[in-house]
Amino acid sequence: MVRAALVPLLLLAGCASPDASAPGPVAGAPGVSAAARAAEALPPMLASFRRSGPVTDFEQRPGGAGLGAAVPYAPTGGERMAATVFIYDRGRRPPDGDGPEVAAEFRLAAAELDAAMRAGIYRSVSFANGMGVRSAATARSFRCANFRITQQDGAPTGSSLCVAVQRGMFVKVRLTAWQPPDPGIAGIAAAALTAAVLQARDRTTEG
């Protein structure tokens, strides 16, 4: 259960499961990008989440250079949450750490949410809080921002965005929680998944 996983992150980062079922094929192959290979190399089980679909390689789409790849994860306990892990470089090699590049990603994400609200995709978006996180297992730092979002159908949701830079690639986790629609719960679950992704990537040479 995700709620059971809401413990200090020093316990959350060690959750990659090497004996889970093998991942599926990369969407859009052949000509798979480095970002898509990195996403495909992630374990099927991360923290209390299981991979729920194939990798999407945005690099192969028109205008997709630098946008990387994404892979969805869903909680194993049946909670009404959905998460997506993004790996990308925006056409450059950002320096590792929690620096200006990460701050720029949050500014862009906030602009995207505002644009989505103005386009009618969301009824309302409001910032709840932000937090800095340090993964004890990897000694890596990252940042998360949590939001209250009312969906187009009127459903309240908690949403979280976590961003890190690791080995010259952005690692971003977006998570939406429908029940409970609590941005704090969404934030802790997203941080747990981000820490597990970073630890898994530290164990592989891909991307």
From TrEMBL:
Q: Does the keyword Signal apply?
A: yes
- Signal peptide coordinates: 1-22
**Domain of life assignment:** Bacteria
Ordered alphabetically, the record's keywords are: Signal
The protein depicted here goes by the name: Lipoprotein
